């Protein structure tokens, strides 16, 4: 299933360019166009799922594969030992702007916690 006007479905279909760094049967990953860390990859299912709220029965393996990809990319980029962050935003209050689920993989710098400014 895909959504005709979805940016990330277009990247999956090869209709929009992206720097793809990982591909498997169910998942692809590419570099974020507006990187917030030396490594900032977006890991997405080939299947269109709009938000975490839309993950359904039967999608468990696909969602698990997002994490397997994160682990593989982190190792490939030399981040495994120092550490990295994997995060998925859900809906506007969390900052989701592209409505095709994606794991952000961020690494190569120290990150604060919690991930919002004080106040
Ligand atoms: P969100 O805010 O939904 O959690 O994350 C969306 C991410 O997609 C942002 O970090 C943004 O920089 C990235 N992004 C938006 N449009 C494009 C694009 O056309 N290509 C790539 N590679 N990344 C994009
Ligand atoms: Zn999509």
The number of helical elements comes to: 3
Which compounds are bound in this model? guanosine-5'-monophosphate, zinc ion
Rg (C-alpha, Å) = 14 Å
CATH class: Alpha Beta
Structural class: alpha+beta
Give me the CATH superfamily.
Answer: HIT-like
Physical arrangement of strands within the biggest beta sheet: 1-2-3-5-4
Distance between the termini: 41 Å
Structural domains: how many: 1
- Give, in order, the helices and strands: HEEEHEHE
Classify the beta-strand content into a percent band: 15-25%
The helix content, as a percent range, equals: 10-25%
Could you walk me through the main structural features you see in this protein, from its secondary elements to its overall organization?
The chain has 119 residues and is α+β, with helices and mostly antiparallel strands. The chain is built from 3 helices and 5 strands. It has a 5-stranded antiparallel β-sheet with strand order 1-2-3-5-4, covered by helices on one side. It starts with 6 loop residues before the first helix and ends in a 12-residue tail after the last strand. The mean pLDDT is 96. Guanosine-5'-monophosphate binds next to strand 2.
